[in-house]
């Protein structure tokens, strides 16, 4: 690894450590990093090497706790007293924490009311197509408010959601048709990247902020899953208790609790990620180390099952769909693992396990492509086949290059920063592909 790359890796490790501290927000970490880089640059100009300049600059900035206290005093409006449970001496900090809580609750209720109105006013198929438009604008609004985005970025967010609404509602989809289902599946993916634009405060060109968004996505999913599980248990206990009293509250649960809980959880989960990053940061390495070996076993079992099939044409269509979903899961696991890893740690056993995961996924992807191309040649193209084929090509490119970089990292020829850089550079491809599917596939197949 060259000197500049090693310096960037040092700074990335420092940033990750600081960002996990409960009293420092993402915006504050950005400000601190700018100050650190200025110090490093000044010291390098004075003749110090990159490593030496970094160590001296960090030492000059003082201990993390001291910095946290200083930032807590100067930026008390960004602290969430209700969640971080840190003692504060400033009444302004408490007022700002209450204000943020009210904003989050207002957005959660607004998203829930929007979803409820959608169920009441739209047909079932239209609700499925528009569900992301009914909820995600409120999540984007939360980050736009929190990051204090510029008018230009705010306009880009509004225009993106408006264009999506026009496409999804003006296209003459056949009710329950294939292209309508495809649009309903891919619209949330495309709009999630609009949320990402709000999350990074409009600074989408920054590799660091893209990796922050990847990390946020994984942590948000963890919190959302926990909220869903907890809510499911609570609903089950409540229904059981009312049944013992010969009272049926299932209609209330279906009509009000589930829509409000689902929409509100999307906003609340994001809020928890912002406030409790240090908690999930401790969970992330555990999750990746548990699920990576299990996923490898599943992929190898699927490859063995494919080997027993006489012809790729005979492969069941449902199996192909499930394998596509598994590949998406592998991609998410790969991204989450990279975002949670210490960038300065040397290659270890888990990195080799992860290489096995990527190679296994690549093998499955190649088999999938062969099956799809054979089916298209034999039976012709359909919207589902074209979308699945395109998605597998997008994944294939990522997996091939990821294998190359992972092997180089294990052999000491590449730095871990190269792996991170590849994933952050490739991230917009997924959003672009999802948007292209929503816009182009229905047109190409006459909305059937």
Automatic annotation (TrEMBL):
InterPro entries: Perm_prefix_1. Signal peptide: none annotated. Keywords: Membrane, Transmembrane, Transmembrane helix. It comes from the Bacteria. The keyword Cell wall biogenesis/degradation does not apply. The chain crosses the membrane at residues 101-121, 127-145, 152-171, 183-200, 220-241, 256-274, 286-307, 319-340, 352-374, 386-405, 426-445. This is DUF4153 domain-containing protein.
């Amino acid at each position: 690894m060259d000197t500049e790359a090693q310096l960037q890796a040092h700074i990335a490790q420092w940033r990750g450590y600081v960002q996990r501290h409960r009293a420092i927000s993402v915006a504050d970490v950005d400000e601190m990093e700018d100050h650190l880089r200025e110090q490093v640059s000044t010291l390098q100009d004075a003749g110090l090497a990159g490593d030496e300049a970094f160590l001296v600059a960090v030492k000059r900035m003082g201990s993390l706790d001291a910095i946290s206290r200083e930032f807590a005093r100067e930026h008390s409006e960004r602290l969430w007293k209700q969640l971080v449970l840190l003692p504060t001496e400033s009444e302004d900090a408490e007022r700002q924490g209450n204000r943020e809580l009210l904003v989050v609750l207002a957005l959660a209720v607004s998203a829930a009311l929007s979803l409820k109105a959608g169920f009441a006013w739209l047909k079932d198929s239209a609700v499925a197509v528009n569900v992301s438009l009914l909820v995600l604008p409120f999540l984007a609004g939360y980050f736009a408010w929190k990051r204090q985005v510029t008018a230009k970025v705010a306009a880009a967010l509004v225009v993106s959601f408006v264009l999506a609404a026009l496409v999804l509602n003006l296209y003459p989809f056949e009710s329950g048709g294939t292209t309508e289902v495809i649009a309903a599946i891919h619209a949330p993916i495309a709009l999630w990247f609009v949320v990402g634009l709000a999350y990074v405060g409009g600074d989408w060109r920054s590799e660091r902020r893209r990796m922050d968004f990847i990390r946020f996505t994984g942590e948000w999913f963890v919190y959302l899953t926990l909220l869903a599980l907890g809510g499911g248990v609570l609903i089950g206990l409540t229904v059981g208790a009312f049944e013992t009293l010969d009272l049926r509250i299932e209609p209330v649960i279906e009509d009000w609790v589930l829509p409000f809980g689902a929409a509100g959880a999307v906003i609340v989960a994001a809020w928890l990620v912002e406030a409790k990053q240090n908690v999930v940061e401790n969970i992330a390495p555990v999750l990746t180390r548990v699920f990576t070996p299990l996923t490898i076993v599943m992929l190898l079992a699927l490859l063995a099952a494919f080997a027993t099939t006489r012809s790729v044409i005979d492969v069941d269509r449902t199996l192909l769909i499930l394998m596509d979903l598994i590949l998406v899961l592998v991609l998410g696991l790969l991204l989450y693992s990279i975002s949670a890893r210490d960038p300065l740690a040397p290659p270890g056993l888990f990195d080799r396990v992860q290489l096995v995961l990527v190679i296994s996924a690549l093998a499955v992807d190649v088999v999938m492509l062969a099956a799809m191309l054979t089916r298209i040649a034999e039976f012709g193209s359909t919207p589902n086949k074209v979308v699945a084929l395109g998605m597998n090509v997008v994944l294939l490119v990522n997996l091939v290059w990821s294998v190359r970089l992972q092997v180089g990292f294990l052999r000491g020829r590449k730095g871990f920063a190269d792996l991170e850089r590849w994933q952050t550079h490739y991230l917009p491809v997924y959003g672009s592909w999802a948007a292209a599917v929503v816009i182009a596939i229905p047109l190409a197949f006459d909305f059937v």
